[in-house]
Amino acid sequence: MNRFLNAFGQCLQFLIAAMLMIMVVLVFGNVVLRYGFNSGIIVSEEVSRMLFIWVTFLGSIIALRENSHLGSNFVVRAFGPAGRRACLIVGRVLMLGICWLVFSGALDQTRINLPVAAPITGMSMGWFYASGIAFSVAGALILLCDLFTLATSPMATVDRFLDETGERA
Description:
This protein is an all-alpha fold and 169 residues long. It has one domain. It contains six helices and no strands. The protein has helices at 2-37, 44-65, 73-77, 81-113, 126-152, 155-159.
């Protein structure tokens, strides 16, 4: 499963890079056209905003996978091995609850906004909220793998979850 998640993370990194490139081309091209030729790319702002939202949520998936999200490890490190493991498991379970909240809210908003068209592109506004669904499903999968690793691995592997470099077991 770790191999699949690592490959998935690399695909996400490539997708994010492509989205960022499209955003740069659209925004830079729009600036050049506005100031140089008194025209512009009409869909530039709307497409860039949608891509930015997706880049943010997809980047959050990568941060969760690489264990590079914000955390206060100094409290967890104060415990013994069993306490560290328990704290990490409780933290992952709480994050699973947050994933459920994000999923249910994003699903509701996607359903509501599917028939709503964006003003310029005419694209369904449901695509904006679908990024929350993508994040919560992928995040839950990562967290479930983390829980399995935390519950079944020796303490040396568990301590890697506290490593500041974000390396995975």
